[in-house]
Amino acid sequence: MFLPGKSLQTCVPLEQSGLISARKSTILAFPKLYQAISIYMTPNTGLTELYRGDDPVVDVVAVHGLNGDPFKTWTTEGSEKMWLKDPSLLPSNLKNSRILTYGYDAMVTAVLGKTSSDRILQHPQTLVAELVADRELEDVTQRPIIFICHSLGGIIVKRALAHSASRTSKLIQHVHSIYVSTFAILFLGTPHDGSNKAKLASVTRRMIGALVPSKIVDTEGQLINALQEGSEVLQNITDMFVPLMKNFHIFFFWEQVKTNMGVTQDYIVEESSAAPILDNTERAGLPNDHMNMCKFESRTSPGYRLVVAALIRYSKEAPEVVSQRWKHAIEMLNAKRAQEADELLR
């Protein structure tokens, strides 16, 4: 069991990371700078449980975006309200749920420069593996899942579900459980079709600058490339996910306020990219900028009721639907095993 507020992975000291070069002595001479860099160089990764109801019927899993953090992404500045965890917010609306946040190394660049060692295709596999392990230990492998994704987190989740859906062979069929159990996905500002080529340079810088405005930008990083229009990685993820969409309730949200970039203001992810018009999907705008569209300070915060109402509705519908899906999935897997046994006897 993961205790609230406890991360699964211990951060590696900066001295052991191998990322400090000739600048080490200069950095160590300034403790505050050293501390700031240490935070960015050792991101929180893995699953963390934020809330557990008395008798959970659904797992809500939050996945942050590019240069994001499993806690800060969902927390308001100043008041430090994390709506996923605060007793007066989501937990009070979803009393019969378990709420988790997932962290991964999406820090494209930092003061000393470090592109994520995991490629964008590897993050989803880790997410699936961690969810499978967590749910097996909790003995709730068939409990419904609802994903809440911000920005790049939506791409990670789409690829994770495609990965899980394809794992049906005998030795790895347990990985298939995440796909079967997923009922709904809320996409908050996810770039589903990339960015306009003419704005490529500025968009990639804005995507990073929205969280780490003072950092050096590496526009050649794998995570950045995956957001570019026409990116082979992004296109492959979209192609794999489209056939699966009919199995999920999907709600697209786009930002309605431009992000202040200092000299100018602009949308980080435009409406057409964040909320494509597709059959059997919901879409709505959230009255905030890209970085704050996933933060709510109170029940009266703009957009809170819209997002939470969807979560409540999905959590009520999910148990019965997912239960039926599991019956069909077990029949399918048993049929595959029987067919494999027959082929061995031939």
List the helices and strands and how they pair.
Layout: H1 24-28, H2 31-41, E1 46-52, E2 58-63, H3 90-93, E3 97-103, H4 123-137, E4 145-150, H5 152-165, H6 177-181, E5 182-188, H7 200-209, H8 222-225, H9 232-241, E6 249-255, E7 259-260, E8 265-266, H10 271-274, E9 282-286, H11 304-345
Parallel strand pairs: 2-3, 2-4, 4-5, 5-6, 6-9
Antiparallel strand pairs: 1-3, 7-8
Helix pairs in contact: 4-5, 5-9
List the defining traits of the structure above.
seven-stranded mixed β-sheet, two-stranded antiparallel ribbon, single chain, 14% strand, 346 residues, alpha/beta, 11 helices
Task: Classify the secondary structure makeup into a structural class.
Answer: alpha/beta
Please tell me how large the radius of gyration is. 20 Å
- What's the order of the H and E elements? HHEEHEHEHHEHHHEEEHEH
Strand residue percentage: 5-15%
Mean pLDDT: 80
Helix content: 25-40%
What distance separates the N and C termini? Answer: 46 Å
* Biggest sheet statistics: 7 strands, mixed
β-strand number = 9
